[in-house]
Specification:
This protein is about 20% helix and about 40% strand. By secondary structure, the chain is α+β, with helices and mostly antiparallel strands. It has a single domain (about 1-20, about 30-220), classed as outer membrane lipoprotein receptor (LolB), chain A, CATH 2.50.20. Strands 6-5-4-3-2-1-11-10-9-8-7 form an eleven-stranded antiparallel beta sheet. Strand 1 (about 50-60) and strand 2 (about 70-80) form a beta hairpin.
């Protein structure tokens, strides 16, 4: 029950993926062939390493039982020391704040805080995006097989496949898409076949994300 609840809370990141037809999206054949692994991933992780990161997002969650995708939009704010905050502005306001130790979910006047210590597997899943923005390949490889398609000088995609059987029951794969230094999107495919595609826009980094914005996103965290 805890694994499913946390999965629902953190499937929040991540253009349409490899099949996207948009001209400014990744090539349809990007995730194909044999991926690079190990130290060959380091140039991309080096590009991704940030102190701060902020953007707007639009997300579509595709559920097999629904005729149309569930759509949401809002902002994402990352601080290397504090964690990552995702504020949904539409269709209904919701805030998710993820630190290294807990996940806080705020819906209206209801606040729920979940310690990540309850599940090492879902903690690993929840921390994919913030750990990627820290450039910490070694930490991610403790829980995921990671593959790189493309290269740091053009379009690239990092794929994360869970190693642990417990997490494999919920998550099939996570793919982070980028173009040179820009993180473009993240796709999450659940074991059920449902998927979430999140497109990132208006990206700002480091000094372009002021202290006031960090304070507003994380509050007392």
């Amino acid at each position: 029950m805890f694994l499913r609840a946390l999965l629902i809370a953190v499937v929040v990141f991540g253009p349409g993926g490899p099949g996207a037809a948009a001209a400014d999206g990744p090539p349809p054949t990007l995730v194909s062939g044999t991926p690079a692994t190990g130290k060959k991933l380091d140039p991309v992780f080096k590009l991704l390493e940030q102190q701060r990161f902020a953007c707007k997002f639009t997300e579509e969650k595709h559920v097999a039982l629904l005729a149309r995708p569930l759509k949401s939009s809002g902002t994402i704010t990352f601080d290397r020391d504090k964690g990552i905050a995702r504020a949904v502005t539409a269709p209904k306001p919701q805030l998710v704040v993820l630190t290294k130790t807990s996940l806080k979910l705020v819906k209206g006047k209801t606040v729920e805080e979940i310690p990540l210590s309850k599940s090492k597997d879902l903690k690993a899943f929840a921390m994919i995006f913030p750990t990627t923005l820290r450039g910490d390949r070694a930490e991610l490889e403790k829980s995921f097989d990671i593959g790189l398609y493309g290269s740091e000088g053009a379009w690239w995609a990092l794929t994360f496949s869970p190693k642990d059987a417990a997490l494999q029951k919920f998550v099939k794969s996570v793919t982070v898409f980028g173009n040179k230094t820009d993180v473009v999107a993240m796709r999450i495919v659940e074991a059920s076949g449902d998927s979430s595609d999140t497109q990132l826009t208006d990206v700002r980094r480091n000094k372009d994300v002021p202290d006031t914005e960090i304070a507003a996103a994380f509050g007392a965290n």
